[in-house]
Specification:
This protein has 117 residues and is mainly β. It has three helices and eight strands. The chain has a single domain, classed as Quinone Oxidoreductase, Chain A, domain 1 (Alpha-Beta Complex). The protein is 14% helix and 35% strand. The strands form two sheets. It has a five-stranded antiparallel beta sheet with strand order 7-3-5-6-8. The longest helix is centred in the middle third of the chain and has 8 residues. The radius of gyration is 14 Å and the shape is globular.
C-alpha cells in the first residue's frame, strides 16, 4: 500500500515521503479500513512538527483522522466488513488503516465521505 510517512519532526513539505509498504493486518479488537478520505487539520501539522499532545513514533504514517470502509476485522470485533466508518486515530494518510473498534463512528451507508472527514 502507499502511505505518507515521516522519519523526523519538521515541516510537512520537508519531511513527508510517499512510500510503499505492506498492507497491515488487524489484531484483536481492531479493524482494517480501506481509506476513502482524510482532512488536513492544524493537529496534523503540529503532529508532524512534533508539537502535538502525543509524539510521533518513527517511522510514522501521518494523518490523525479519516473515513473509509471496513475491509477486514480482527477477533472480538462486532462490526462487519463493508461498514462505512469515520475515525479519529493516527496513521490516517495511508491506503489502509488499522483502527481499534472503539475509535470508530459508524456512518449511514450513503453518507457523503467529504462530510465524514
Amino acid at each position: 500500500m502507499k502511505a505518507l510517512y515521516f522519519e523526523q519532526e519538521g515541516e510537512a513539505l520537508d519531511v513527508l515521503q510517499l512510500k510503499q509498504t505492506a498492507i497491515p493486518e488487524p489484531g484483536e479488537n481492531e479493524v482494517r479500513i480501506k481509506w476513502l478520505g482524510s482532512s488536513i487539520n492544524p493537529a496534523d501539522i503540529f503532529f508532524i512538527r512534533g508539537k502535538y499532545r502525543f509524539k510521533p513514533q518513527f517511522p510514522q504514517i501521518a494523518g490523525l483522522e479519516g473515513a473509509g470502509i471496513i475491509e477486514k476485522v480482527g477477533r472480538n470485533v462486532q462490526l462487519t466488513p463493508g461498514t462505512l466508518v469515520a475515525f479519529l486515530y493516527k496513521n490516517a494518510w495511508a491506503e489502509y488503516v488499522i483502527v481499534p473498534e472503539y475509535e470508530l463512528s459508524v456512518l449511514p451507508e450513503n453518507f457523503p465521505v467529504e462530510k465524514a472527514v
